[in-house]
Amino acid sequence: MNLIVCADRNWAIGNNNKLLVSIPKDMKSFREMTTGKVIVLGRKTLATFPGGRPLDSRTNIIMSRDKNYTVAGAVVVHSTEELLKELEKYDSRDVYVCGGESVYKELLPYCDTAHVTRVDHSYAADTYFPDLDKSDEWEIAVESDEEVYFDVTYTFVKYVRK
């Protein structure tokens, strides 16, 4: 299973239920990687999507503890066990965990590849991703050259589980 995230230099990923920065090339990369695939996300992350609706051209699986929560055009699961059962229907290479903080932390042990856009800036934040650079379980497999969008410098980094 994959995960995909944009994190700043402190591994911050959000503030006040919003992304820290919007980089068009990062958004394009997300679209290209996940179109036609399965995305797994939490209810709060779904609320940040355009119109608060599932993304087109993907199988959207929403995690929510609320047993009464439903979303048109998406599968809703209420536990990690229920998610893993649902994911048996798909090739794990086609599954992308895409947030938020609690979903990343819950599913990181099940992922073997992490696609991370690393932004060389420290933002005010209230939401974080685990620091893969400090983990003995992960290593960098591929890192792009530095790119710049206005005054934001970033790289695309692919981490793999050792």
Task: Provide the descriptors you would attach to this structure in a database record.
162 residues, alpha/beta, Dihydrofolate Reductase, subunit A
Major sheet size, sense and barrel closure: 9 strands, mixed
Which sequence of SSEs, written as H and E, runs from N to C?
A: EEEHEHEEHEHEEEEE
What CATH calls the topology is Dihydrofolate Reductase, subunit A
Tell me the number of strands. Answer: 12
**Percentage of residues in DSSP E strands:** 25-35%
Main structural class: alpha/beta
The overall pLDDT average reads 97
How many helix segments? 4
Question: Can you give the helix content as a percent range?
Answer: 10-25%
* Euclidean distance between termini CA atoms: 14 Å
Tell me the CATH architecture. 3-Layer(aba) Sandwich
As a whole number of angstroms, the C-alpha radius of gyration is 15 Å
Name of the CATH class: Alpha Beta
What is the molecular shape?
globular
Q: What are the segments in which pLDDT stays under 50 over at least 5 consecutive residues?
A: none
- Per CATH, the superfamily is Dihydrofolate Reductase, subunit A
Domain unit count? 1
